Amino acid sequence: MADIPLRKLLFITVLIPILGGLGWWYFREQSLLDLDPAYREYAYITNGKSNTVSVIDLRTFALAKTLGVGSEPTGIAANSKKNEVYAVNTESDNVSIIDAESNKVVATIGVHARPYFIDVSQDGKRAYVANSGSNNVSVIDLDRRMVIGNVRVGVAPGLARVSPDGGTVVVSNRDDNTVSLIDAGLLRVRATLPVCQHPEDIAILPDSSKAFVSCSGSSQVASIALANSSQPDDRVLALLDVGRTPVSLTVKPDGGEMLICNFDSDSISIVETYNNEVGSSPQVGHHPSRAVVTLDNSRAYVTNFGSNSVAVYEIDMGRLIATLTVGSHPDGLALTPDQNYLLVLDTESGDVTVIQKRRPRKLEPSEYSLLTLIPVGIQPNAIVVKMFRATRPAR
User: Fold this and answer.
1) What is the C-alpha to C-alpha distance for residues 247 and 74, in angstroms, rounded to an integer?
2) Which helix (H) or strand (E) covers residue 235, if one does?
3) pTM for the whole thing?
4) Which of 99, 187, 253, 348 could make a disulfide contact with 149, Cβ separation 3.0–4.6 Å?
5) Could you report the per-residue pLDDT of 205-229, keeping only the tens digit for each?
6) CA torsion through residues 347, 350, 353, 354, sign
7) Residue 322's closest CA among 365, 268, 260?
8) C-alpha to C-alpha distance for 390 and 394, rounded to whole angstroms
């Protein structure tokens, strides 16, 4: 009941600009006329307590479909080389494969116990799933839609992330404070490195030279050099002191800096990735949990789980420029491909807040405005955006 006034306020805010004449809808419709008729743009959202995936059409910002998947879906990822999306079902120990052209579940692949996340190689051929309940990583051949190996790692692996060059899979082992590095070609662990306490999130630089792992139990981030032709050994370079309970890592597209959400310090830490220096740690809101950076590297959007808001941070200027009200307990978020719309998952209120960025006109206080609120399922967990050209006629 506590979020009802907020919902009313959000819907009123949406209605005013729409009723005011030619607004966002007209101009977006006009721009869509120039697109290839086969162009598609969707957001896929896992709803953990509804056992569903919601599909939002980003051309119209309407709920296109609700797909039944396995039990308690959590992580989700898209294939950059084929029109498929993959949802991990934690309680049913499997992965649902969604055909993005038909938006139907076309296959289910069993993995091992309690998977949470999935990562897909850039060539679109393999997926990696860390099974936290069975201490291994399942390797999936996406062309054959089958598991081709289960690699033993440390205790309670939370996440397996594949490097951009496809050569290394980095695994954070939460309960033994280690990181496993898997040779993706040989499908075996080539190194196990002790790091800091309770390692969780992983980020890898675009050139695959280095990985970073957040450790929520010791308020640190581990910097790890990955073996390659010029660096023969995997090794821990540094343990970086950041804020309390670092929960997520976001590398800028250019790879030069990384943002760390410090959940219990109400701040983000900014790290220079190539020299491992921790710079400023600005306050952004109560319990920041996730961040996304624009493609031009200029702005970061940070969800504040504890204050029902999104912070807009100007990276080059080093300042907070806006705080945007969203739904209850925001967590995951994503930008549309044109970077003009921000989608925020409201985990408690079960909806997606869509925020529009536009050039402000006279008497408008901000370049940001609430566009709409889209109901999805119970406890939306993760989001991925997929844009593609359809190869089959729409049904």
Assistant:
1) 16
2) strand 235-241
3) 0.91
4) 187
5) 999 999 999 999 999 999 999 998 6
6) positive
7) 365
8) 8
Nearest to 126 by CA among 174, 77, 71, 73: 77
* Best CA proximity match to 379, nearest among 144, 50, 7, 4: 50
DSSP 226: P
State the virtual CA torsion across 28, 33, 37, 42 in degrees, nearest 10. 0
Scanning 297-339, the segments in alpha helix (DSSP H) are: none
Whole-angstrom Cα distance, residue 102 to residue 84? Answer: 10
Report pLDDT digits (tens) over 33-89: 466 789 999 999 999 999 999 999 999 999 999 999 999 999 999 999 999 999 999
Q: What is the DSSP secondary-structure string of 157-212?
A: EEEEEE-TTSSEEEEEETTTTEEEEEETTTTEEEEEEE-SSSEEEEEE-TTSSEEE
**Per-residue pLDDT, 359:** 79
In the sheet that 178-183 helps form, which strands lie side by side, from edge to edge? Answer: 157-162, 168-173, 178-183, 188-194
**Distances from the Cα of 276 to the Cαs of 138, 248, 273, 386, in angstroms?**
31, 17, 5, 33
Side-by-side strand order, sheet with 380-389? 62-68, 52-57, 39-47, 380-389
- Residues constituting the chain: 395
